[in-house]
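Chain A, query sequence.
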Amino acid sequence: MIDEMRALPQTFQNFDQALSSLDWQMGITTTDATNGELPHAAPSLQGSLSPLGSDPNTRIIQKNDVNVNEEFFSTIVRRETLACAFSPENPCGSPFPQPMAVSILAMQKRNGDNANFFRPDADLAIVVISDKDEMGDGKSFNPTKPEAVVSYFNSLWSNTTKSLHGFGIITQPGDAACLAQLRKKWPWDPNYGTFAQHLADITGGMTTSICSSDYSQNFSDIALALNPQLTTITLKATPIPGSVHISFTPTPSTPISWSVSGNVIKLNPPPPPGTVVTVNYQVAQ
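Chain A, predicted structure.
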């Protein structure tokens, strides 16, 4: 992930704006589930949320924090990745990422290192950022299956309205061009993220490409999937200018404006969930 780490500040601008539609808080951990078995390895978090790079006494980034972007970048860009040299002075992270196993470990620490993170009234989104699969290739060393993540989540919160959604910024399965791009410099490391993709598939989430040039868009897509809002309406035909009339039931407390471009209506702001939107318009005969 060294190349992706180096590119993050350039490809991930205005992080907080990408999630502005959600009442969110975020914790960051590594995909390293080892326990000191590897020589010259950086200390493994094993699912514990990482202390923030901007504030070592804090582990949770919250929406209303003053320096959200700084907190995010200073925590997600890992020294053990950028300075990796397999030496005591510059130890490396594990070469065997385990995002599925780490997700379970993180939930197991909900009353310990990760206290106050798993809010009872908030859905849980697991976002995997990796250019490999579980345990590298998704086949070796008995990798933890996505179904195990869902099963453990359900064992904790099955009697609540809390839901789980898996997401990934990954080498999407079948995207041969992205895989080839990643393997130009690292011929054997990158692999399709089949486990992250499957977690997304079985939890109603989604994945986006790690080869994207703008990770802000990736997170905007994830935010929209978590909190779908009606921002556009596509009509079957192009209306006569000035003939469009829209009504909202019930009437929103905040006025909603709209504009028409061709046969697409744009709403601002989006109507509240449950609002019935009725559109009447005329077309040329």
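The mean pLDDT is 86. The first strand starts at residue 25 and ends at 26.
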